[in-house]
Write a sequence for this structure.
């Protein structure tokens, strides 16, 4: 195993490189973000909870013409319905009981910047026409006021729900849906890009080792392979939580299956009779992939189909990686 020096500074990659993953779907997503960020079009970001929708929205802001302006994120599912209008649109003094002084709403606060409406599917139907007017006319009116204020806001919306279904069920306005859905970015679930797990694991382990001041040198291949067989319903957020827990609990300097939550294996995964190989922190993604694939092939006595099943990838991925390694 190799001792790795972990920098005390946050070494998170910046810009598009902060969206970690070398899989084809992530490469395509980065390309789309780069293209869409330069426009002023509304963007609808689709993806499961924990997949990274807010990170995508921040990248769109950072790469846009309004990157020096504010980035305001509003979780529509977290604001009580009776408070949402005043939070979004603001109010004048005396607009309602308790309005002792005027207050700008979150839409107004995003002037000359970006407004993210996260979980837009949870926005009450009663407020949707008012939001549509803001989008179409770039004007906002506070509660208790008869005057409209001009604003310049780039609006992004994100959801884990199927908005088309909500429109058909008359729970979401069709005109607002079409106004938001000018450009669509789909953030893939982690189970559709399992090949990114070694790279994500590397990043999160180094991050948490630095944060908690632990002396962790490596993760063994059984633990790594187990991470690659889980279906990750909580996506990248779940992986981050699992690895943070592992770093906190670890006492040996080597992350093993014992440091991972029991529900991850369900008692199904075990590489019987195979010696453990440590994956050092700081090892390149290519070398990690090669090592994990070799380890899976050893565990399955060279059966590529079984090795692919063990790692949660298709057999072509195994074949392609082996061929590429031979060429290198």
């Amino acid at each position: 195993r190799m001792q790795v020096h972990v920098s005390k500074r946050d070494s998170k990659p910046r810009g598009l490189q902060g969206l970690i993953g070398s899989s084809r779907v992530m490469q395509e997503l980065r390309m789309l973000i780069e293209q869409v960020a330069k426009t002023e079009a509304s963007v609808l970001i689709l993806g499961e909870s924990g997949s990274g929708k807010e990170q995508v929205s921040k990248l769109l802001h950072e790469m846009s013409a309004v990157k020096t302006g504010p980035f305001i994120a509003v979780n529509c599912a977290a604001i009580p319905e009776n408070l949402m209008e005043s939070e979004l649109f603001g109010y004048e003094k005396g607009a309602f009981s308790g309005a002792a002084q005027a207050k700008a709403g979150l839409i107004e606060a995003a002037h000359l910047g970006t407004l993210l409406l996260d979980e837009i599917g949870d926005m009450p139907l009663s407020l949707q026409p008012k939001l549509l007017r803001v989008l179409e006319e770039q004007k906002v009116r506070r509660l208790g006021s008869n005057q409209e204020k001009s604003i310049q806001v780039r609006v992004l919306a994100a959801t884990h729900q199927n908005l088309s279904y909500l429109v058909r069920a008359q729970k979401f306005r069709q005109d607002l849906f079409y106004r938001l859905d000018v450009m669509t970015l789909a953030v893939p679930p982690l189970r559709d890009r399992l090949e990114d797990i070694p790279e994500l694991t590397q990043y999160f382990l180094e991050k948490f080792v630095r944060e908690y001041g632990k002396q962790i040198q490596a993760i063994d291949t059984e633990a790594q392979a187990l991470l690659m067989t889980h279906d990750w319903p909580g996506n990248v957020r779940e992986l981050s939580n699992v690895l943070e827990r592992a770093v906190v609990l670890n006492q040996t300097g080597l992350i093993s299956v014992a440091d991972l939550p029991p529900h991850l294996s369900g008692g199904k995964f075990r590489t019987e009779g195979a010696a453990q190989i440590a994956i050092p922190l700081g090892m390149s993604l290519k070398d990690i992939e090669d090592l994990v694939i070799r380890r899976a092939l050893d565990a399955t006595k060279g059966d590529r189909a079984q090795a692919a099943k063990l790692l949660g990838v298709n057999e072509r991925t195994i074949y392609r990686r082996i061929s590429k390694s031979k060429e290198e």
In short: Residues 24-189 form a domain with the Rossmann fold fold (CATH 3.40.50.300). The chain has two domains: 24-189, 193-327. The CA atoms of residues 142 and 290 lie 59 Å apart.
